[in-house]
Amino acid sequence: MIKTDILIIGAGPTGLFTVFEAGLLKLKCHLIDALPQAGGQCTELYPKKPIYDIPAYPEILAGDLTMKLLEQCKQFEPGFTLGERAETIEKQEDGSFIVTTNKGTQHQAPVVAIAGGLGSFEPRKPLIHNIADFEDKGVEYMIKDPEFYRDKKVVIAGGGDSALDWSIFLSDIASEVTLIHRRNEFRGHLDSVDKVQELKNLGKINLITPAEVTGIVGDGAVKAVVVSQAKHIEKEFELECDHFIPLFGLSPKLGPIANWGLEIEKNAIKVNNALDYQTNIPGIFAIGDVNIYPGKLKLILCGFHEATLMCQAAYQIMNPGKRYVLKYTTVAGVDGFDGTRKEAPKAVVKAFD
Amino acid sequence: MEQDINITIIDREGISHTIEAPTDMAMNLMEVVRVYELAPEGTIGICGGMAMCASCQCYVLSNTLLPEMQDDEEAMLSEAFFVKDNSRLGCQIQMTPAMEGLEVKLAPAE
Fold first, then answer.
1. ipTM of the complex
2. I need a surface site. Which of A249, A288, A319, B93 has the fewest CB within 10 A?
3. Do A232 and A267 fall within a single domain?
């Protein structure tokens, strides 16, 4: 059982900033995210796209924003359960909550903050008739541990950054990497496209375009995929492999959270915006894109504000009646849970001769 | 102020809506669908309009002369599901006077 003060569901920008604000109040956080890395949409959908409305950053790439937020909250030592989706929540007699993921990992905290954005990102599954029969039996929609593919024959399908980047990465690990895409053109970062071209020329990546995987062959495990190629003349052939990894991006679904007894409106969780962004269940808050209230704007900067106010309410739940005064970081400095201290340099007092 | 245009959007339930869309708000078709709440929030325009998801895919039914497809839209549609010859991404269709009479059907949610 993982125990923490604030259990944050969703490791996007709002969730990560919560760690910092909670840390200032000496509250510890643990984050759960269905994606294998922190950053939410920012790292999953558009890491290399610029954002122009983060205060004090005239321009910042979404991926860089995530790095900065991780750096900012580092000294508060957040825990992470990544690649797992929060599935169920149970209220305990002492008022705390136990949240269990789809992999069975249990977390307990007196306060739960749902910073789930548009929901948990689920892989977009290609419409191949028998694909469900092979899930986790050679078909994986996400790569969690590249070592899993050592000395294996791997087929990757897709035409975006993740298909390109993983093909490059696995070309050093797997015994054979084949990349299949419906078009000759790829929608990736230029460096990645060039690198794939280079590895193709070296014979380290087998590129099949324009083509698509239309079937899977095997008995209890993937043995081969059926490839339909449309180059010059249409042909269909079987390609032997141990793993088929379709990387067609992810799409967010509110998912199990919708069944937690929270008031939902327009695919978002209703909260009290006059006070602290608490939901209809005391102790459960919703912040960032996942919540809704009159005048709601789905902006990262609004999520930061909501996270900050929510932490104050969380503090009161954990320290009932305790008087608290807001401290400015410039005045009080920042004391990390890792023993580090950041503080403003002292003014120099020196008399002139 | 420029004139509003009349367009018809058939939602995912098959219900047809003829609506007035403003041409002076730099709005695209995906945003019009959201403003009129013709698809549940969270199921359309997920990437915000960067042609990086296919949640605003629609089938163009009228023979309106549409803006030419750019590389990123074409690439996204090549990875989308339920794609037909008349598929377009709503976020890439700007509401201009030339879109008067446009008729589209929203593609199924993935």
1. 0.77
2. A319
3. no
